[in-house]
């Protein structure tokens, strides 16, 4: 299944952007983000994306937007930058579909001093939405990293609560205090609500302040958890029950498959025990069997896992009924060509396999 089976060509918005990023994460590829300053630059980016058969992120900065409109225009109140960004967006929308690639249209870092540019693009989004049922741009980046904590909180309340925008949030529990990170900005969110979170990193166990700060998890699609203890099973299961759109869980510093086997979710299809495997733990045949008989394991389509032996890989491929892709690390990997040849002899003909060129200890397997 290719990316065009997941999302359409042309400029993507809303759920289609989330689908694209989820697909890229599951298939472990990056999407290039390229800043543009003219219509010819947009065309060049789209042509390169078409030839590479790759989705692409087209970005425009405040300065690039001003250049797009023309340096001869007055930019008081960011008027030229607003006009240039809107013109770039309309040009990208006009031609993108004809290049046959999915496109994310994004405005680059906007500091506090450039906020009128940001507001102007939002107004263009709203006007376009009234006519077409979707915003003009795919996404925007508001960067207040130079501002105070109070200004950041005020901006979050203004744009995330009132505009109902989505945000990636990292939550850390330090016992007597909690900390959330929104994009690159650390913000204490005591007595403040965070809404429409799509990506969440949790340092378990969860405290009362966590539940007070997050009124809803309806938009949550990926979750990374650290420091699992069996004693926090109930609170974590409550989080899963409240996350109806959750697709992916990454387990960091977790080797307790008995804990995982108790968890249930109607929506999760991706499990990652490998990416954050900082302690180099390898799962045994018994632990693989426990995963196989768990609710999360039986419905898993994409699995990343470190295992003791190559025979554990064969077991997982043959026993997980819905598995489509498997990325694994073997403790008995000698890092020679014979290792992959062994798999070619023992795997079903419906499987394809290769070694990750960027992470040579990781081997990727696809099941057709």
TrEMBL record:
UniProt GO molecular function: fructose-bisphosphate aldolase activity; zinc ion binding
Metabolic or biological pathway, per its Swiss-Prot or TrEMBL entry: Carbohydrate degradation; glycolysis; D-glyceraldehyde 3-phosphate and glycerone phosphate from D-glucose: step 4/4
Query: Entry's PROSITE patterns?
Result: ALDOLASE_CLASS_II_1 (PS00602)
Instruction: Give GO cellular component annotations, separated by semicolons.
Output: cytosol
Q: Which Gene3D superfamilies match?
A: Aldolase class I
Keyword Metal-binding among record annotations: yes
Q: Where are the transmembrane segments?
A: none
Question: For this protein, what is the EC number?
Answer: 4.1.2.13
Print the keywords alphabetically.
Answer: Glycolysis, Lyase, Metal-binding, Zinc
Would the keyword Protease be found if you checked this record's keyword annotation?
no
- UniProt xrefs under Pfam families: F_bP_aldolase (PF01116)
GO BP terms: namely: gluconeogenesis; glycolytic process
Lineage: superkingdom: Eukaryota
The cofactors it requires, by name, are: Zn(2+)
Chemical reaction(s) catalysed: beta-D-fructose 1,6-bisphosphate = D-glyceraldehyde 3-phosphate + dihydroxyacetone phosphate
InterPro entries, sorted: Aldolase_TIM, FBA_II, Fruct_bisP_bact
Family (UniProt) = Belongs to the class II fructose-bisphosphate aldolase family.
Q: Which PANTHER family match?
A: FRUCTOSE-BISPHOSPHATE ALDOLASE, FRUCTOSE-BISPHOSPHATE ALDOLASE CLASS 2
Output this protein's name. fructose-bisphosphate aldolase
Organism lineage reads as:
Eukaryota, Metazoa, Spiralia, Gnathifera, Rotifera
